Amino acid sequence: MEYNTARDQMVIPEYGRNVQKMIQYLCSIDDRDRRTKAAKFVINVMGQLYPAAKETSDFKHKLWDHMYIISDFKLDVDAPYPPPPPLSTSLKPEKLQYHDKDIEFRHYGKNIALMLEKAVDYEDGPEKDSLVHAIAQHMKKSYLNWNRESVDDTLIEMHLDKLSKGKAKLKQDFKFQHTNDILGLNKKRKPFRPNPNGKYNPRNKNRPQQ
Q1: Rounded distance between C-alpha atoms, residue 75 and residue 112, angstroms
Q2: Domain span at residue 115?
Q3: pLDDT per residue over 164-194, tens digit each?
Q4: Are 112 and 135 spatial neighbours (Cβ–Cβ below 8 Å)?
Q5: I want to staple 153 with a disulfide (CB 3.0 to 4.6 A). Which of 68, 111, 169, 176 is the partner?
Q6: 21-27 long-range CB contacts below 8 Å, 24 or more apart?
Q7: Could you tell me the CA-to-CA distances from 106 to 36, 103, 149, 208 in Å, in that order?
């Protein structure tokens, strides 16, 4: 019995070992025309393994690139696309730069800070007050998504002041939305209504647990 550990390593496992063996066989065909014709047949087989990807514009191009890669760039055929450079498979992609280093309170997100920057530029008046109040309410909701154990309205106000560098102030009559209202804990439960026939109704979701 032949175990996978004794076989050649899979180059692109998604296509399976049989496709890899077919591509290796292509490289052994001496006649170029026969080799090209056989390569096109293998490309069709590879495409049948991923029928949903046929909608993409570069689907065929990717298949030919994968065939060259599986053949270790030894395949020489008349392909509709040039082979990719061998070094392209060993190059590491560039590291993505994340712009979260300047986020002081990550549970609020970057958008809250950007919204406050716009809000402080408004002229003092009802429009600015309404915007600041809406941002403060959203900050409390975001805070509760991060920590539902406890939240202090005074803490939210302090964070608002710090994020806005003291330029966004809440009015004295402003009140934060109650925590229970945000979490939906104060919804009244529907009273249990027994079946008039005295039997359990499986559709009655409010049946008390026994």
Answers
A1: 55
A2: 110-183
A3: 888 888 988 898 888 888 877 545 555 555 5
A4: yes
A5: 176
A6: 23/67, 23/70, 23/71, 23/75, 24/71, 26/71, 26/75, 26/77, 27/71, 27/74, 27/75
A7: 56, 6, 18, 42
Q: Is residue 47 domain-shared with residue 14, that is, in the same domain?
A: yes
Q: How many residues does the chain have?
A: 210
Place of tokens 């975001």: 142
Looking at the structure of the chain, the number of domains it has is 2
Which pTM does this prediction carry?
0.45
Looking at the fold, whether 114 and 170 belong to one and the same domain comes out as yes
Q: 15-41 as b/e, with b when 16 or more CB fall inside 10 Å?
A: beeebbebbbebeebeeeeebbebbee
Residues 78 and 117 in one domain: no
Q: Indicate the residue type of 109.
A: G
pLDDT in tens, 145-156: 877 777 788 988
Of 156, 143, 129, residue with least CA distance to 182? 143
